[in-house]
Amino acid sequence: MALDANDQLVWVVDMEKVVEDDANEEDEEDEGGGHTNIIDVTDSDAPKLPRSKWFYGASFLQENSPNSMGDDDDNDDDIMGMNLGSEGSLHLTCLSHAGHIVSVSVDSTNTIASKGGVVEEGSECIGTFENGLECGGWSPDGEVLALVTFASDEDEDGDNDEVVSPKDPEAKIPILMTMNTQYEILSEVRLDSSLFPVRSVEEADDGSLHPNSISLCWRPDSSSLAVSTMDADVNNKPLRRIRTYHRTTLQILSLSKEEDGSGRDVPNLLPVPPTWAPAGCSHYVGSVQSSRPLTMKSARARQVSMQVAFMEPNGLRHRECKIHNTVAAKTDKENVTGVAFNLEGDLLAVTSRVTTNDATYGKIQFYHRNNYHWYLKYELRYDGISGRPPAVVSAVKFSEEDPYQIMVALNRGNEADSLEWREYTFRWESSTIYYRSHQSPTSSSSSIIAMAIDGKKLNLTPLDKAVIPPPMYAASLELPAPVVGIATRPSFHNEVVKEGQVDFIIALSDGKLALLSCGGGKGGVSLTPGFQPPSLLGIVDPLNTNASDETVESHVAFQGGMTLRDITIIDASDDSLTVAAVTCPEATIGKHQVTDILVEMKISWSTQTGTAEPESPLADIMMTSSLPLEGRALRIVNWSDMAYSAGARGGALLELTDGSLLEYSQSGVVEPCDAGPLLEACPWIAGVYDAKSDASISPNIDGNDLQGHDESSKRLVIGLSTRYRLYCGERLLSSASSSFIISLEHRFITHVTIGPRPCLRFLSLASLCDFDPLMGSDENMALDGYEPRMVERGARLVAIFPTKPTVVLQMPRGNMETISPRALVLPYTMMKIQARDFLTALDIMRRQRVDMNLIVDLDPTIFLEKGGAEQFIGQIEKIDHINLFLSSLIDVDTTLWKYPLPSWIKTAKDMHAPQSINLKVNKVCKKVREVMTSAEKDGVTSSGKVIKEGHFLLPILSTFAKESPPKLEEALSLIKNSASRDSSKLSRKKSILLSEHVQSSIQYLAFLADYELIFNTAIGIYDFDLAKAVARHSQMDPKVYLPMLKRWRELPESTARYEVDVKLKRYESALHHLVAAGQADEEKAGEDQFAKCLKFIQEHSLHKLGLELFKDDKSEYRSIMVSLGERLMSEKKTEEALIVFLASNPRHLDGGKRASRACGDWRTYFACCAENNETIESDQIEAMAESISSKVCSMREQRENFASAATILLDYGQDVADAVDMLISAHLWSEGRRIAYLQNRTDIVKKVVIGSVSYAKSCIEDLAERASTFEKTNERYAEVIVIRRDAIKEAEEAGVDLHHDDSASMFSMQSTASNTSLRSSASGTSVGSVGSVGTVASVSTVISVGATSTFSFTGDVDNMKHKSKFNKIGRDKKKKKKPKKKGSAARRMKPGSEEELKELVTTLGHTCPDDHYVDVISETITFLIQSDKQSMATLLFEAYKELESAVEQSQTGRLERDRKEKEEREKKERKEGRINDFVEHPCEKVINAIHCKQLKDSLQSAFSFFL
Fold first, then answer.
1. CB-neighbour burial class of residue 313 (10 A; exposed 0-12, middle 13-18, buried 19+)
2. I want to staple 720 with a disulfide (CB 3.0 to 4.6 A). Which of 184, 287, 506, 684 is the partner?
3. pLDDT, tens digit, 9 for 90 and up, residues 295-308
4. In what side-by-side order are the strands of the sheet with 564-572?
């Protein structure tokens, strides 16, 4: 039989007619066979002839039709059904127990049927086996056909041992053979003698399996096959065995054995055809096993228990799947008829036939494998409802694409409804989590329960009491029929939980609904103390539903076996529940039903239901509305914010199979959801009714004022598809996620990602509401989540505790793990701190290792000024916890770097100025200390707890030790004072400082600070007894500290304190005590005592304090002043030393002369000499002048030094010639001429003029060289700056930080400029000795060689220094010799690099004359004109003007070219559609601003007349 895409009948081929036509082909032609109507095949008037039993049909690809094989057999055999799996251009192979093999060409038959011909002409009988066929099948790859037939008694090829004894007529020798697609035999093998089924024509076809039947199955990869036979003689009795054979050679690979190593056969295997699991299950074979032997007498009897035993490829039995006995009555008999695996091997379908006293029906049980356990998750019963006849399952086939889609063929046993099949798609949820809010404190139930279905048993685990990994559980509840669905009661807005209310609706496989309650009644069996599982209140039957009024359409009534799915509780009262569910009506004949009906029902019960029997009629169900949908419903769920949003009550979120989202409201109102359709169908969805409401995303906010339907509300829908894609409406949140949960209490959407680095991610609901997919990634970080947590690969999200920051995960191995991720801990802790629940917050922070600075940093104002510290001390009762908090304080705001405040957490910190973070520790310690001290004084804390004095001793010590700097002196004083209060309890002989109380306090203080520091602090307050008490438990050597303390006790007080201060390096205090010791001992007071003090002052630089202490004694005061001057001289602070020397009384002239000469103050030097009546020799004068003029400094300062040297030579040495030489070196031409005329030395005037002319010539050459250098350098700069711009732009596009280094340099392919370094433009005129007429100052050499050199050291600088007898650095180090570079290549740098650009910038800046150089040139031109050297002045003036013009033209031309290139590039990029983003180098503004300073206006005005 062939059907089209619309399930319409296309053609029917009669296999018996094909065999008959082939047998009679040579004798006669049946011309009327083509007019046979497909309905006539089952015509009751046709003669009823014995027909063959056809048991197999499958497709394979065949290019050419083979020739017929063998002869036909008699028509004395039975017929079975076929399993068709056809594709285009395929052939169907059909087998019968009579031995016939018929090949049906799909294409040929389609063509013949379309033309109205005889469809049997498209089929061909390949041949017939004379001994019949018992089983057969194509390999999954469609290349090998396996067949099992029997050998005849007269077969001479068999051994004598294989001849069957006539005493056992039911035993034969099976033959296993394989054929290719051309039906050519590839190989065959004889099997052990086995029993065979004896079939008769008169035997009724009830679909039961014969105990001796033979079956086979192929391995999914087609590498081998398994054959199940009932061996005739195994230890003198028959036994069913399963053997595996190689695909090609049919060599036996394994035999079914027990796994205990004894070699025993697996007993009691049933004749159910075995099935081979896919690759994900280690390729094991599954076969049904009974608990007792199966004989012909007990073949149809009910078995005690059955299971699916699994055999590994080596034949050893390994684990099993227990088959649940779920029959309604004890007298019912159940036989398993088939098993099948899905594509992934985690779903096992077990088909069975149940025989009752009235009828026979079929059922399918679906077992899901998880945690090494097979759960009975679903059961389909076809027992006939509402008058329809029961159906028997004739075939079950899983989809080869979707592992959770299955097609079921049914046989109802009558002609009108002989063919029926159904398609099911399962949505698997490993468990159902029930959250119960507003729980009564006296309730024994749990607030969070995980429920798992396993047949009739509902396994429950209270996750808040015990995290038990499945398949174990804390409690279980057994129901009358297998559970197929669970509907939990949500927490409604402003609802008060009452004991005895219905919390669960359980859908059973028989179509009934069970009502469960978490409180009251007798529950199931609990294995966990303190947990009472739910109890059964009653059972209702939806088939007995009554319509509430006449408006409900009659066609919606439950008839024809309609069942409810996706039962959802949308509203509730004290004695009733309103539920919404989806149902699919029966399909009509020849037409699929593609729409669903959404129904609303009200389930009510009496308050006495709990005391009645489960089948109590006190529970009633009524249909209130029904609504046909426009398509198939995929999922219906409650709104997640029902507990916080009043508008969500009475409604539900509905999703269709195309991803469309609908909102259902009570009384049958369906509207499109404004959350938008999902991009693909998502079987797992969750929705928030009002995502904009603060009560939804922050449940701590009261939602009493919320309206039911707010126009400004925003829906938020999250969906997870079968491809593990997580969506929020039309937005993709994650491309690979295994599970998700919306936690309104924690304001997160939590999901687990799949991949090489799986993470537990948390998406804020508030951020997701404001998420804009059009924003850039930098502004929109919602999808990155908050504080993701790495998890194990394959982990799944089970539950999130609503009242704790705890997540329950299930690992791929099945174990359960409870974690507290940072993303939940931090916001939860912040909320507790905001609520001033410091006890809970501190406990969580301590357990989860959260920085306790967050208590203060979240809002310092509240903690320090608004009672936060008082509440903190009042709530925290354990002293250790207070100490832990104080010890963790640091002067850093953790909310700025460690725990950034999420945007959805609002604090008062946003409205206050931030505290000074450097003073946080001190402020907190001071505030907490004040609170604890006040509480001890009052005897009671802010929470009302009565305390004694000294209760907070250790925390107060912590505040002293934690401050910066630590207040250890106050801490030791507190310890000593506390010891005095306990002195009455000690004996008189024992010191109070040696008491246990004091010693324990000192030990605790030592935990916060070092013992040595505490000991030094104790001796620093000069309490040697306390110091001894501190040193007792330290690591200090008693031989050291005991004699030292004893000696200090015996010394005078000031002397002892002096030595203590010196030991502690408190030198100022030591000096005070040293002076006091001298004053106390008048006999030793005198010069020796002052000498000791002066030496101490000099050693520790205590001159300032010494001047204060000895200000009354002038002599001693002057000695300290002189000592201070000498110290300043040694520190090279000559100017300060000069002031100190001359400020002493009487003045220290010798020190003043040394200081003035060292600092270059020649005027003060000569004044000191005159005051001291000293005669200055001429050589001293010349030496002074030479030292001043030879100082290395800037050009301007050097000019002033030459002028000062000239003044010294002229005023004190009367040396006019040398003075004028100094003025010439300073380029002070006018001043030199004036001095020469003043001293009547006209011969020196000519020397001044010659010097100015010589300087002018050198300046002319230098200016010309500068102009040439600037032009060349500027041209190269124009090329390099373009390269650097491109490099910066490419680095920005690539997201790389360039750092302007050589690694990002680029070569300019168009540049033809030389890559060699620029030469120095320094003047070749050497600098002569001071005073020479031909000397030209180094103004002309401002462009130094180092400024333009491209050579630099790149290795060890010390090793590359010049080696000489004076420099031994690197002489003894060996390094690998490298070939030396010759010529200019040794100084070359990378063309276009940042280094070259820096050198060019430096050269351009140095080439343009600075202001001082321009002023000197102006003065030189003026002097030359005054000295009748107008021609030279003109040449110098024109040379400078040429430089100025060259610089201006070069700059203008370069900028103009650069502007045009920018415009062209901008036009080009705009044409290409790219954004023009101009990049500017940081040095461009400086270079573009370079220009030459103009000469004096008077010179330019004067030369306007000359030129």
1. middle
2. 684
3. 545 544 445 689 99
4. 546-547, 620-628, 597-604, 576-583, 564-572
Helix axes 1162-1171, 1149-1159, angle to 10 degrees: 160
How far is residue 225's CA from residue 215's CA, in Å, rounded to a whole number? 11
| DSSP letter string, 947-981 | --TTTTHHHHHHHHHHSSS--HHHHHHHHHHHHHH
CB count within 10 Å of CB 1069 equals 17
Count of CA atoms in the C-beta half-sphere (13 A) of 152: 7
b/e map 1378-1410, b = 16+ CB within 10 Å: eeeeeeeeeeebebbbbbbbebbbbbbebbbbe
Q: Looking at residue 1363, what DSSP letter applies?
A: P
Which residues are bridge partners to 242 per DSSP? 228
pLDDT 10s digits, 47-82: 444 556 777 777 666 654 444 333 444 433 333 333
Q: Where are the beta strands (DSSP E) in 27-132?
A: 54-60, 91-96, 100-105, 123-128
Tell me how far apart the alpha carbons of residues 563 and 507 are, in angstroms, rounded to a whole number: 10
Q: What is the pLDDT of residue 1265?
A: 93
Return the number of other C-beta atoms located less than 10 Å from residue 1426's C-beta.
Answer: 15
- Tell me, what amino acid is at 132? G
Q: What are the two backbone dihedrals, phi and then psi, of residue 724, each rounded to the nearest 5 degrees?
A: 65, 35
Task: Quote the CA–CA distance of 867 and 1084 in Å, as a whole number.
Answer: 61
893: Cβ contacts below 8 Å, ≥ 6 apart: 853, 857, 914, 917, 920
Q: Are 1434 and 1424 in contact (CB under 8 A)?
A: no
Specify the range with the lowest mean pLDDT, choosing from 819-833, 895-909, 1221-1235, 1264-1278: 895-909
Say which residues have a Cβ less than 8 Å from residue 556's Cβ, sequence separation at least 6: 597, 599, 623, 626
Structure tokens at 257: 């054995």
Measured CA to CA, the distance from residue 86 to residue 95 in angstroms comes to 16
Pairwise CA distance, residues 302 & 305, whole Å = 9
Q: Which two tokens stand for residue 963?
A: 């401050």
Say how far apart CA 23 and CA 31 lie, in whole Å: 15
Give dist(CA 1375, CA 37) in Å, integer: 103
Question: How far separated are the first and last CA of the chain, in Å rounded?
Answer: 119
Q: Residues 6 or more apart from 344 whose CB is under 8 A from it? A: 278, 280, 403
Classified as helix, coil or strand, 79 is coil
Tokens of 888: 């963790």
pLDDT at site 782 = 58
pLDDT of residue 98: 87
Which residue type sits at 368?
H
Which of 151-165, 667-681, 1281-1295 tops mean pLDDT?
A: 667-681
CA-based angle 1341:1343:1349, to the nearest 5? 125
pLDDT band of 791, cuts 50, 70, 90: very high
Task: Count other Cβ atoms within 10 Å, centred on residue 1214.
Answer: 11
Give me 1471's structure tokens: 């044409």
Most confident of 119-133, 773-787, 1181-1195: 119-133
Please list the alpha-helical segments (H only) found in 149-257. none
SS (H, E, C) 1409-1460: CCHHHHHHHHHHHHHHHHCCCHHHHHHHHHHHHHHHHHHHHHHHHHHHHHHH
Measured CA to CA, the distance from residue 517 to residue 1495 in angstroms comes to: 104
Q: Mean pLDDT over all residues of the chain?
A: 79
Residues 1016-1048 pLDDT 10s: 888 888 888 888 888 887 888 888 888 888 888
What span, in angstroms and rounded, lies between the C-alpha atoms of 885 and 315?
65
Residue 178 tokens read as: 């394989």
For 1306, the 3-state DSSP assignment is coil
DSSP 191: P
